[in-house]
From TrEMBL, chains A, B:
Name of this protein: 5-methylthioadenosine/S-adenosylhomocysteine deaminase
Binding site for substrate: 92, 144, 182, 212, 297
Protein origin, superkingdom: Bacteria
UniProt cross-references to Pfam families, sorted A to Z: Amidohydro_1
Gene3D superfamilies, alphabetized: Metal-dependent hydrolases, Urease, subunit C, domain 1
Co-factor(s): Zn(2+)
Cofactor note: Binds 1 zinc ion per subunit.
Residue ranges of the TM segments: none
Catalytic activity reported: S-adenosyl-L-homocysteine + H2O + H(+) = S-inosyl-L-homocysteine + NH4(+); S-methyl-5'-thioadenosine + H2O + H(+) = S-methyl-5'-thioinosine + NH4(+)
Assigned protein family: Belongs to the metallo-dependent hydrolases superfamily. MTA/SAH deaminase family.
Organism: Megasphaera hominis
Primary enzyme class: hydrolase
Keyword terms, alphabetized: Hydrolase, Metal-binding, Zinc
Length: 429, 429
């Protein structure tokens, strides 16, 4: 049994920030919030000085294609189909385990540096992604992207099933597995029904893209006479629990379905802006009690994995989009980054700093100039903070970042391997 | 005569990035780009190793109310008039030289840390702001905010005139002064005509807010039968040169006037989003050849002074707003941050890395994880970079930041004084 104490820290808990608190961790869970007097006669294996820091639940990145970090800034400022057809798809044909594993390590390191303690991912070569997650110490919810209309349809189903059997609840319980039907427009009803049957057989949840672009929704309505969300609902995709990325083009009926079927939303403001998809009606979703977390999407459409920047975007863009300065106030944005994200990924003991919850904790250094003068802390966190303020990151009670340095990851090796595998990939094109 | 060399650096010049370049500085100006061979027999007073770095023209923050840094995160998530009437205006009545000087020093330090080498400001107690600019080494274009409809109208005119006489072209030429008629809705035609007369007498340019909110434009049309831009044009506000902040609600006629009268725009995406003002049609402005720079606006409506974040916002939001992924490509965003901003402030020898130009230079550290793998550098700068990548800042040939540390500014003193003056201000309310 290992006991860790974080001393004298600002604590974000129950929607407020309290100063001068202590957080006690026993193995992988938070075991209490002792007073200074309690600490006099307790002994700890590890003591972290939280002076000046703010402790928040670890940040959750609810939507990523982490191996696509290899395509960061490889091809930008293009139309979506042009980008996919001339750049991404041809290059994806040349991916291998080596590229995926090393680019995943790069992405994981970047996410930890930004305070992220868990992420959801959908891609292929997911066994290699799972290996990187297991080794690095981060928490992840993985799925194999499945497109029923491509030649990989059968392989994908088989691989996602195997991924579940091999990795669900593995890696000290840090890995969970969902099924990843890619999107309505890359699938058929028959294939999606097989996905639903598999989900029910395994007890697996679904991670998908839904209603990302206006074109997707129009095409779906033309083809099936209903919205992507109504179609997925009809096919049973929401029956075992569903994490839906984007949900930009949703109407009132869609929102009703999402609320009723507890569809959880991965909101990716950076990607939605950059790809010119649009701006999701997040204010309305929250009003209806729909769970919303934040995601970066892949680095190829962002182009970083900085989830604090997504929080900042989420706190800003909806105000202008609705012309309402009161929509998504500071604490709502911070909550989406933490508790909302954890709920979106289906976690029941992550996303809050509470006794019995997993010790996924981010400590934020508040010594930067942009944290002065000392006015409202929640507002500073939502509107002024920068991911380079992240000082310390714990996942499952284990310290992965301390004093802004990685404790378990060899950064120079990661950069070298990222560069080597990128060069190898592009040389093969 | 002092000679400085920046060796072996990536150079952003003529819209592209070239690696392994050298930049020679003589006193306050760039004096050439010697080859490695040239360097063999030259001697320098100071050598900066640019290995791995990217040199860009110093970033320009085209719109700020820097003393309002005291109000950073003091009051957020409120309606504009509520915020002004219950929070900002009552507190502004208690400002003094001490508060303004020290909060200005805080804001200047934050801006330098973010790579900013010059900024435009409009507020009051501008003599204290000028003093902070002179001492700190940054470059600034200052104006006294003038509201014709308030009791300070006469004082403001007198103070802006005196500011021009005392500070224009002072501080080693780093300070320029404009006249600052606040906005259409806080002024009268008669008062604005006096401002125009003063501008013509002094040969001074104008810095103002224009067409920031939908309500402002509607009210102006009701009152004067024309848009704020048409009204200002008619009154002669554009005749001596004009820097106009926001320009969110502008129609085709307004854009024609702006192009014809060379109105230069300070685009403040963060503030426009946060205050729910809307999204300015920047793509259309650039198409018409209108000069656009980026601004943070005051920290009270942002809530930081991170101009790289504004670049990132500008590169993203217009794509979603127009549903066009090709609008504001990476290099356009970088150009607004540098050359566009310098032109907006009326500088003719700043904003490019060219022989004879002022040595206002920002060096960006590219060792961060988010700069890997090494794909397109311009795209990485626009979409992936973070202001904490800024390593070195020179203004007028003088090094203000080196290895991410301030060389001339005492940061702990600045934080202490910012806190002291904030407490003093709020204690007096």
């Amino acid at each position: 049994m290992k006991k860790t104490i974080i001393k004298n820290v600002g604590l974000y808990q129950d929607h407020v920030i309290k100063e001068h608190q202590n957080i006690e961790i026993t193995d992988d869970r938070i075991s209490g919030f002792p007073t200074d007097k309690d600490l006099l006669d307790r002994v700890y294996d590890e003591t972290l000085d939280g002076h000046g820091m703010l402790a928040t639940p670890g940040f959750v990145n609810t939507h990523n294609h982490i191996a696509m970090t290899v395509f960061r800034s490889y091809a930008d400022d293009m139309n979506l189909m042009d980008w996919l057809q001339t750049k991404i798809w041809p290059a994806e044909d040349h991916l291998d385990s080596d590229v995926v594993y090393n680019q995943t390590m790069l992405g994981i390191a970047e996410m930890i540096r930004c305070g992220t303690t868990s992420f959801a991912d959908m891609y292929f070569f997911m066994d290699d992604t799972a290996r990187a997650v297991a080794e690095s110490g981060i928490r992840a919810c993985l799925s194999r992207g499945m497109t029923g209309i491509t030649p990989s349809a059968e392989t994908a189903l088989k691989e996602n099933r195997q991924l579940f059997l091999d990795w669900h609840k593995k890696g000290d319980g840090r890995i969970t597995v969902m099924l990843g039907p890619h999107a309505p427009y890359t699938n058929t009803a028959a294939y999606l029904q097989r996905v639903v049957a598999l989900a029910k057989e395994l007890g697996a949840e679904i991670h998908t893209h839904l209603s990302e672009t206006k074109g997707e929704v129009e095409e779906c309505r033309k083809k099936y006479g209903k919205s992507p969300i109504a179609w997925f609902d009809e096919l049973g995709l929401f029956d075992t629990g569903c994490l839906a990325a984007h949900c930009v083009w949703v109407d009132a009926d869609d929102l009703d379905i999402m609320a009723r079927k507890h569809v959880r939303v991965a909101h990716n403001p950076g990607s939605n802006l950059k790809l010119a998809s649009g701006i999701a009606p997040i204010g309305k979703m929250l009003e209806k009690g729909i769970t919303v977390g934040l995601g970066t999407d892949g680095a190829s459409s962002n182009n970083n994995l900085d989830i604090m920047e997504e929080m900042h975007l989420a706190a800003l863009i909806h105000k202008a989009n609705t012309l309402d300065p009161l929509v998504i106030p500071a604490e709502t944005a911070v909550n989406m980054l933490t508790e909302g994200g954890a709920k979106a990924l289906g976690y029941t003991d992550i996303g809050r700093l509470e006794t019995g919850y997993k010790a996924d904790i981010t400590l934020i250094d508040r010594s930067g100039l942009h944290w002065y003068p000392r006015n409202d802390q929640m507002s500073l966190l939502a509107y002024a903070a920068n991911s380079f303020d992240v000082d310390t990151v714990l996942v499952n009670g284990k310290i992965l970042l301390r004093n802004k340095e990685f404790t378990t990851i060899d950064i120079e090796k990661i950069k070298h391997e990222a560069e080597r595998t990128k060069n190898k990939l592009f040389a093969s094109l």
